[in-house]
């Protein structure tokens, strides 16, 4: 079944957003590496790889539907975080933005009766719940300890252990 053109444009735009997300998390990994927060650097670098995988899933889906993949220019991410909490807040904000876009796409697939696309997108709907939870829970912990940098260092140490073997 051919995809409605508006839906096709939206899926292509989402592929671009996933590549942008990967770029954003690689930028965050660079920031954390520069300030020697190895755990946060590993977490965000691993997350960048997950975002590439999200882009690939959407890309493969369009190929499977015999639709045209249109790769678009990837914007440079805004950097300039002033501390680790600031960067993790930016990650959470970004995930909320992605959730809104996935929900809009899901709603539009429903309205256009594209049931196959809806089923495919349901994986992304669930994934966004996990992604928001990941950064929200981390941000909550960082806000509890506020300016106590020794506690942020402890969180970094835990993240380093948790993300050591993730590839
Ligand atoms: Fe972070 O979930 Fe894709 O974009």
Task: Describe this structure as you would to a colleague.
This protein has 167 residues and is mostly helical. Helices cover 78% and strands 0% of the residues. α1 packs antiparallel against α2, α1 runs antiparallel to α3 (84-111) and α2 (38-64) crosses α5. Residues 18, 21, 51, 54, 95, 98, 131 line the site of hydroxy diiron-OXO moiety.
Considering the chains and any ligands shown, give keywords for the structure.
binds hydroxy diiron-OXO moiety; elongated; 5 helices; mainly alpha; 167 residues; single chain
Helix content: over 70%
Distance between the termini: 36 Å
Tertiary shape = elongated
Give the C-alpha Rg: 17 Å
Low-confidence stretches: none
Number of strands: 0
Order of helices and strands: HHHHH
Q: Report the sheet with the most strands, covering strand number, pairing sense and barrel closure.
A: none
Tally of alpha and pi helices: 5
Structural class: mainly alpha
Quote the average pLDDT.
94
Ligands bound here?
Answer: hydroxy diiron-OXO moiety
Topology:
Layout lengths: L4 H30 L3 H27 L19 H28 L3 H31 L3 H15 L4
Helix pairs in contact: 1-2, 1-3, 2-5, 3-4
The site of hydroxy diiron-OXO moiety has 7 residues, from helix 1, helix 2 and helix 3.
Task: Provide a brief overview of the structure.
The protein is mostly helical and 167 residues long.
